[in-house]
Amino acid sequence: MKIILTADVSGLGESGDIVEVKDGYARNYLLPRNVAIVATKGAQKQVETIRRVQENRRVRNLEHAHELKQQLQNLDAVTLTAKVSPQGKLFGSITSGDVVAAVRKAGGPNIDKRSVSLRGHIKSLGKHIVDVQLHPDVTANVNVQVTGDK
């Protein structure tokens, strides 16, 4: 079945792409979630409009991503407090949600936790570098200080 994507779908394509997928995948997953429409002659004309809007949005998003990167790099101290055993080991590990909350608490911008990339598991006290993917072309590095809860 030929469909037109109305939103980005990982592993399939971007908004505005015309792709061929199995009927069941389109009927049971893509169409009910409103991330695709059936490709008809009229819908294919709408693809051009979708692509133009997407190009304009991409430019704005790139500029906005650079602004967010600057805000993240200007943060002085992003500190996370975690529970620590008497031996000085963390109970569990630091998650991307914890990092997002710490960035907000430090006065940083609101970012999506799915854009936070931890370089491995954070299971120790100290300073750690966390990557934040703001745009496909823009990545910011945030220094996170993990301290123990005493």
Description:
With 150 residues, this protein is of the alpha+beta class. The protein folds into two domains: 2-66, Ribosomal protein L9, N-terminal domain (Ribosomal Protein L9, domain 1, 3-Layer(aba) Sandwich); 75-148, Roll (Ribosomal Protein L9, domain 2). Helix content is 34%, strand content 27%. The protein is built from three helices and seven strands. The chain has helices spanning 23-30, 41-73, 96-105; strands spanning 2-5, 18-20, 36-38, 78-83, 116-118, 126-135, 138-149. The protein has a four-stranded mixed beta sheet. Strands 2-1-3 form a three-stranded antiparallel beta sheet, covered by helices on one side. It is elongated. Binds to the 23S rRNA. InterPro entries: Ribosomal_bL9, Ribosomal_bL9/RNase_H1_N, Ribosomal_bL9_bac/chp, Ribosomal_bL9_C, Ribosomal_bL9_C_sf, Ribosomal_bL9_N, Ribosomal_bL9_N_sf. Belongs to the bacterial ribosomal protein bL9 family. Pfam families: Ribosomal_L9_C, Ribosomal_L9_N. This is Large ribosomal subunit protein bL9.
Task: Summarize the topology.
Elements: E1 2-5, E2 18-20, H1 23-30, E3 36-38, H2 41-73, E4 78-83, H3 96-105, E5 116-118, E6 126-135, E7 138-149
Parallel strand pairs: 4-7
Antiparallel strand pairs: 1-2, 1-3, 5-6, 6-7
- Give the N-to-C terminal Cα separation: 60 Å
Mean pLDDT: 85
Tally of DSSP helical segments: 3
Helix and strand succession?
A: EEHEHEHEEE
As an assembly, this protein is: single chain
The low-pLDDT segments are: none
In what range is the share of β-strand residues? 25-35%
Structural class by helix and strand composition: alpha+beta
The number of domains: 2
